[in-house]
Backbone:
């Protein structure tokens, strides 16, 4: 990592921006709060619940604005690019964030906010002793810290994607993007909470009559359901990988191709594997092949041109994308033979990121030294001797 120096202009920028973020977040939430919760007593909505939702909406608005202004802070973006010679891991990103000027400034003003906020804000609408108020402020402070950290991680991820795609446009601030962010934060995070009373009544009734006295059982059932879903996903991926290996072995036997043993065929279902998995010699040519995995059908794999890529995980509600996260993967490996990358199981969406734009990845497309195939496409191309010929 390179040494980081203080930049007075950047410090002032971040001070002004984050104070503005705090003020605007509170104002928007106050506007939303002024006309919120009609008929709250009849629906079982206590002042505690009202204040919790108020704080939640504040945190979400704060996250949106913090992420926005960080994303278009060109000085911070270039400083991040110059701090690492290779893409940093999560641990390195964590250290970078907690030591950055932007995070320290935001942390400072968060502490100020907690100290000057009115007492009744953290009393949750009821008479509480000083111990409760202190505890509530600690919780509010922790929520702010988590929101800030998530905003920074999200920003670093977007910067990393832009850097891999050679995209320089991300650093240019545009007023229409700010307006879009403001509208989204108000409509989705604030005005959207107006619909909560409509759905709260049945939830409140369900909780009182079914869940309240069986909370441990309900939590265990939820955890068990999550584990079962995760196991089913991996079993499905395992079966698809096993089916591919069986088909490949059959084709090699029928056509007198030479197939090496398949090393760790199921490791890449759990984590990235750097070496290639197997070699196959067909039509007088040897191909070294690495197996990749798109664990979820609705995930998206984005291949860079430098042997690295990103897997996009999207969370949707009624086909509307609410949020997404990214994980890194590496498809490069050392070999003197022709190099092939085989995706099995493959997600529905495969893209190539190049020069700031994304395009659909064709089956058998050549990316530098590598030919990229889905499982069926590779077996078909191997039989017809058309690998690396498109």
Residues:
């Amino acid at each position: 990592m390179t040494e980081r120096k203080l930049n007075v202009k950047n410090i002032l920028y971040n001070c002004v921006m984050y104070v503005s973020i705090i003020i605007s977040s509170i104002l928007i939430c106050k506007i939303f709060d002024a006309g919120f919760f009609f008929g709250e007593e009849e629906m079982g909505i206590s002042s505690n619940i009202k204040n919790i939702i108020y704080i939640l909406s504040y945190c979400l608005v704060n996250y949106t604005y913090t992420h926005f202004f960080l994303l278009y802070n060109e000085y911070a973006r270039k400083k991040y690019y110059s701090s690492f010679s290779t893409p940093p891991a999560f641990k390195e990103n964590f250290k970078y964030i907690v030591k950055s000027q932007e995070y320290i400034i935001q942390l400072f003003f968060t502490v100020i906010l907690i100290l000057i906020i009115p007492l009744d804000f953290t009393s949750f609408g009821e008479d509480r002793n000083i111990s409760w108020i202190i505890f509530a402020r600690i919780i509010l402070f922790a929520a702010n810290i988590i929101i800030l950290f998530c905003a920074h991680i999200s920003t670093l991820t977007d910067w990393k994607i832009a850097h891999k795609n050679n995209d320089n446009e991300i650093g240019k601030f545009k007023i229409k993007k700010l307006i879009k962010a403001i509208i989204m934060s108000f409509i989705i995070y604030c005005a959207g909470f107006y619909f909560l009373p409509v759905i709260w009544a049945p939830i409140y009734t369900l909780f009182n009559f079914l869940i309240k006295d069986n909370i441990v059982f309900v939590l265990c059932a939820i955890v068990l359901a999550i584990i079962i879903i995760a196991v089913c996903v991996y079993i499905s991926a395992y079966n698809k990988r096993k089916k591919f290996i069986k088909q490949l072995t059959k084709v090699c036997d029928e056509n007198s191709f030479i197939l090496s043993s398949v090393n760790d065929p199921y490791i890449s279902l759990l984590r990235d594997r750097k070496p290639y998995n197997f070699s196959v010699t067909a039509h007088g040519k040897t191909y070294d092949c690495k197996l990749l995995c798109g664990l979820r059908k609705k995930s998206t794999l984005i291949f860079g041109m430098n042997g690295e890529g990103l897997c996009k995980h999207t969370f949707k509600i009624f086909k509307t994308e609410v949020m997404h996260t990214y994980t890194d993967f590496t498809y490069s490996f050392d070999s003197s033979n022709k190099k092939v990358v085989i995706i099995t199981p493959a997600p529905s969406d495969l893209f190539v990121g190049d020069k700031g734009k994304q395009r659909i990845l064709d089956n058998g497309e050549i990316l530098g030294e590598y030919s990229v195939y889905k499982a069926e496409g590779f077996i078909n191309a191997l039989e017809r001797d058309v690998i690396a010929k498109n």
Notes: Residues 20 and 65 are 9 Å apart (CA to CA). Residues 35-44, 122-126 have pLDDT under 50 and may be disordered. The radius of gyration is 26 Å. The first strand starts at residue 258 and ends at 259.
